[in-house]
Design a protein that fits this description.
This protein is an all-alpha fold. The chain has four helices and no strands. It is elongated, with a radius of gyration of 19 Å. 23% of the residues are buried.
């Protein structure tokens, strides 16, 4: 049940922006660590020994990680451009879109990394199965459950 707040429209946008920035901080740290880890992999001696299939999976994972960092930091850049122009509603709307897109690419990055790691360590079939399981868990936790909670409310 939503609690009524006695706040102006400007106060609501300020609160929404603060909450969005906090959500991005939580997700962004993990993504930056993962992207940094992926950045170092090609410079290890063992990387030369992986198959072209695993190299392709790596490139997809790395590209998704880079896209995620860009999407998760985009609201800060947008804030700099819109600051002082009384566009907080636009900032909150666009920031929300960037956050959803960034969480999507973050989930896909993690799924791809799972496919890569299980593929290298156990085998390609295990990698694909593990990736499918992780994808299903993310879809359940990040999409199905929130939508069911919205419908109930």
């Amino acid at each position: 049940m939503e609690v009524e707040r006695s706040e102006s429209e400007a106060e609501r946008y300020d609160r929404n922006w603060i909450e969005l920035v906090q959500e991005l901080r939580v997700a962004q740290t993990g993504v930056q660590v993962l992207a940094g880890f992926l950045l170092t992999l090609p410079f290890t001696a063992q990387f030369a020994d992986i198959s072209s299939w695993h190299r392709s999976i790596y490139l997809v994972a790395f590209s998704l990680a880079v896209a995620t960092v860009g999407l998760m930091t985009a609201p800060a850049a947008l804030h700099r451009f819109l600051f002082g122009h009384h566009e907080k509603d636009t900032l909150v709307r666009a920031g929300g879109w960037y956050a959803k897109a960034g969480l999507t690419t973050m989930g896909l990055t993690l799924v791809t990394v799972v496919v890569l790691i299980f593929g290298v360590v156990v085998g390609d079939v295990a990698g694909l199965v593990a990736g499918a399981v992780v994808l299903a868990l993310y879809l359940l936790a990040w999409v199905v459950l929130p939508l069911s909670l919205l419908r109930r409310g």
